[in-house]
Design goal:
One of its GO terms (molecular function) is 5'-3' RNA exonuclease activity. Residues 5-70 form the Polymerase/histidinol phosphatase N-terminal domain. This is PHP domain-containing protein. The protein is α/β, with parallel strands linked by helices and 290 residues long. The chain has two domains: 4-85 and 171-289, Metal-dependent hydrolases (TIM Barrel, Alpha-Beta Barrel); 93-158, Orthogonal Bundle (DNA polymerase, domain 1), CATH 1.10.150. It is built from ten helices and nine strands. Strands 1, 2, 3, 4, 5, 6, 7, 8 and 9 form a nine-stranded mixed β-sheet that branches. The longest helix has 28 residues, at 262-289. It starts with a strand and ends with a helix.
């Protein structure tokens, strides 16, 4: 029997609409064997989902999606098999969440200047420890009848180059890759077809990028083919995920992408090989010092 995976899912701990429990249950309904909850700048969803994943016999991969910037472009890097207990990483995520909350206030202030009745407190109320983002604001604009749907909110108000857009705190892609490596993870460029900046991939490889998210809901057949060939050509890992944010949220449905489990096997083998190489290098260094 074929086994399938989805390594890019969001929960209500960032900008997804389903709870970690809801994501796990829905993944089980679609027969997925393994998933990665890759929330924006937080791992709270992953930790909350561990027990539910065990209950539904779904393999849960520790992951995160970090916000980066290159050439004034918003770039996302996925980290897999990361050590979320690392103290430095925990402090980094807390700083990012604090800046995300500040950004909500700045965006809503700009919306108020445009005559829209909305406040930062209104957006953040009830989010608790979730990592807030523009999608939360977009949903509020839909609920108020300001826009018909969340894509319209981004196009008219809060997307890049729009009147209420506010840049968020970001690291460079190199800094994101280095951070992921520092906590033992695999650094993967999320949805490369979205950026329309393929020339940057070569730069990211020089920075130590480990893989490409070849399979993604917004990738066309030709995109998938192109990035798969690119990954194979440069010896990069291949991953994939729906980037699901919740039912009726966007055109990123859960369960439609049939991503073979073998790609997750490749990630696991990469971790093993890197660990063995590090141990061998340490032993070689010690022997040379003796």
């Amino acid at each position: 029997m074929s086994k399938y995976i989805d390594l890019h899912l969001h929960t209500s701990k960032s900008d997804g609409s389903l709870s970690p429990e809801g994501i796990v249950k829905l993944s089980a309904q679609y027969g997925l064997s393994a998933i990665a909850i890759s929330d924006h700048d937080t791992m709270e969803g992953y930790y909350d989902a561990i027990g539910y994943a065990r209950e539904h016999n779904i393999e849960l991969i520790p992951a995160v999606e970090l916000s980066c910037e290159e050439e004034n472009k918003d770039i996302h890097v996925l980290g897999y098999f990361i050590d979320g207990s690392n103290a430095e990483f925990t402090r980094f995520l807390e700083t990012f969440r604090m800046h995300r909350r500040e950004r909500v206030y700045r965006i809503t202030e700009k919306l108020q200047e445009l005559g829209i009745d909305i406040s930062g407190d209104e957006i953040l109320c009830g989010l608790d420890d979730a990592s807030p983002g523009r999608l939360h604001i977009a949903r509020a604009l839909v609920q108020k009848g300001i826009v018909a749907n969340t894509p319209e909110a981004f196009r008219k108000y809060i997307g890049e180059q729009c009147p209420a857009y506010v840049k968020k705190m970001k690291l460079s892609v190199k800094e994101c890759i280095d951070l992921i490596h520092k906590i033992g993870g695999i650094a993967v460029l999320a949805h490369p077809g979205v950026y329309l900046k393929d020339h940057l991939i070569h730069l990211f490889i020089q920075h130590g990028l480990d893989g490409l998210e070849v399979f993604h809901s917004e990738h066309s057949f030709s995109d998938t083919k192109k990035y798969k060939q690119m990954a194979q050509s440069y010896g990069l890992l291949i991953t994939g995920g729906s980037d699901f944010h919740g039912p009726h949220e966007d055109n990123r449905p859960l369960g439609e992408l049939k991503i073979p489990y073998s790609y997750l096997d490749d990630l696991k083998q990469f971790i093993i090989d890197r660990t063995v190489f590090a141990e061998d290098s340490w032993l070689l260094k010690k022997s040379q010092q003796a």
